Amino acid sequence: MGSTQSVTASARSKASAVFRVTSGNFLEQFDFFLFGFYATYIAAAFFPASSEFASLMMTFAVFGAGFLMRPLGAVILGAYIDDVGRRKGLIVTLSIMASGTILIVLVPGYESIGLLAPALVLIGRLLQGFSAGAELGGVSVYLAEMATPGKKGFFTSWQSASQQVAIIVAAGLGFALNQWMPSSMIADWGWRVPFLIGCLIVPFIFVLRSKLEETEEFSARTHRPTMREVFNTLMQNWGIVVAGMLMVAMTTTAFYLITVYAPTFGKTVLNLSTADALMVTLLVGVSNFIWLPIGGALSDRVGRRPVLVTMAALAIVTSYPALSFLAQAPSFGHMLETLLWLSFLYGMYNGAMIAALTEIMPVEVRVAGFSLAYSLATAVFGGFTPAISTALIHLTGDKAAPGYWMSFAAVCALSATLFLYRSKAVQLRLAV
Known about the structure:
432 residues, mainly alpha, Growth Hormone, Chain: A, 21 helices, 87% helix, 0% strand
C-alpha cells in the first residue's frame, strides 16, 4: 500500500515539475504565434509600404531577425544555465522574454512616432530571440534529467507539447476576437489584446518557475564549466553541433510552416476567411499535442533512429504533393487535411528528435550544445520559413512552393540522422 502511494506521489511530483518548467515555453510560443497570425495588422501598424508584399516581407524579416539572436542567446545564456543551474537560468530567460513581449504591446504605431516604432518592435523581437535561444534547451535538458528511466522521449516531448497548448489558446483568442470585434477595430488596436493577455500571465509563470527544484543530475555534478570551457567544448564537438542543427531542420521548418505561417497563407494566398484559417490552426495545435508524446514514447520503445528516418523520408516525398493538392483546390476541408498530415509528420519526428538531441550532446555543455544546435536550425530554417515561403510563391507563381522548402529541410534532417547514428562515438554516448 505504502509503495503504491509512494509511486503515485512521485508521479504527481514529476507532473507538477513538467508543468512548472514548460510554462515559460507556453509564453514564448504564444507570442511567436500571435506575431505570425497578426502579421498583416502589424505590417500596417509598424511597416507601411507601397505594396502589401513589401510590407509583409518587412514584417516577416523582423520576425526572422529575432531568430538570428537565438544562437547568441544559446551560447551566452546556455553557458550561464550550465554554470548556475537549470532553475536560476530558466527564471532569467523568462525575465528577458517577458520584457520583449511588454515592449511590443506598448509601442505606438508608425503614424504616432515614425521610424522609432519599427525600431522598438525590432528590439522587442531581438530580446525575445535572445531569451528563446536558451529557453528551449534549458527546458528540454531539465525534462531529460528528471525523466523516469526508459521514458526520456516521452518526458522531453512535453517541451514541444506545451507550445501546442499556447497555439490552441492563441488561436482560440483570435477566433473569439474575430467574432466579437469588427475587422476595422481589430486592425486599429484589437490585435494588441492577445499580446496584452500574454503580459498578464507573466507573473503567474514567474511564480511557477520560482518553485522549480534543481535536477538531481545537475546537483550531483562537481565541475561547473566556465564560459571559455563551454566555447572550447563546443568547438571540439562542432561536427555534432552542425549535425544536430540539420537534424532539427525538419522540426523547425514544419512547425513554423503549419502554425505561424499557415494563417497568413490561408488568408492572403488561398483567400480563405480569417475564421477558417484560425480554426484550422487551432485544430493543428490539438493534433500536434497528441502526436508529440506518441512520437516520444514510440522512440523509447523502438529507438530514436527508426522514427526519425521514417518521418523524414515521408516528409521528403509528400510535402510538395500535399501543398499542391491544397493550392489546386483551396478550401477549409483541404487545408485541414493537408496541415493535419504535416502535423503528424512533425509531431512524430519532433517527439523523438528532442530526446535524441539531448543524448548526443556532451554532458558538460548539454544546455549550451542543445540550445546552439536548435537555435542555429531555427535561425537558418524555421525563423525565415514565413519569409522564404512568401518569396518562393512570389518568384515562382506556384502557391505550393513552400513544399520545396519543407522537402529540402527534411533531406537535411534525414542526412544528419543517418550520419549521427552511424558514428560509433554517438552510439556509445547514447548507450550511456
